[in-house]
Amino acid sequence: QVQLVESGGASVQAGGSLRLSCAASGLTYSVAWFRQAPGKEREGVAGIDTGGVSTTYADSVKGRFTISQDKAKNTVYLQMDSLKPEDTAMYYCAAGSWGRRWYLLSAGEFDYWGQGTQVTVSS
After folding, report:
1. What phi and psi values does residue 93 have, to the nearest 5 degrees?
2. With contact defined as beta carbons under 8 Å apart, do 109 and 101 qualify?
3. Is 105 helix (H, G, I), strand (E, B) or coil?
């Protein structure tokens, strides 16, 4: 069983930056960040293969968001720069088991979920 705890959400102005953290207890093979705005479907934002160096991003955040990990701390980060009001959402961390197709950034490919952390970007 893997437990995930997100932190780092806040309210910022457009153009600002935030860094989200996802601390995992237990072994993970892949971790991704998803977001969900009110009235919208959950969207995969970025993912990482925690055993290697591969990453993937949604087109909407490429060049602005960076996913990384600290293996010693078993923590995955999401650095978010040049934030836009449309980035406002609840952000969730998710972890996948071995063999999952994490690079699809599809919610069904992840087995464990955190409780979420709110990001609000004002114009």
Report:
1. -100, 140
2. yes
3. coil
Both tokens of 96, joined, read: 């996948």
Please give the Cα distance from 119 to 45 (Å, whole number). Answer: 13
**Which two three-digit tokens encode residue 56?**
């993937």
Taking the C-alpha atoms of residue 75 and residue 72, their distance in angstroms, rounded to an integer, is 8
CA pair distance 65, 11, nearest whole angstrom: 17
Q: How far is CA 37 from the centre of its chain?
A: 14
Q: What does the pLDDT look like over 51-96, one tens digit per residue?
A: 878 999 999 999 999 999 999 999 999 999 999 999 999 999 999 9
* β-bridge partners, 33: 46, 93
* Three-class DSSP category at 58: coil
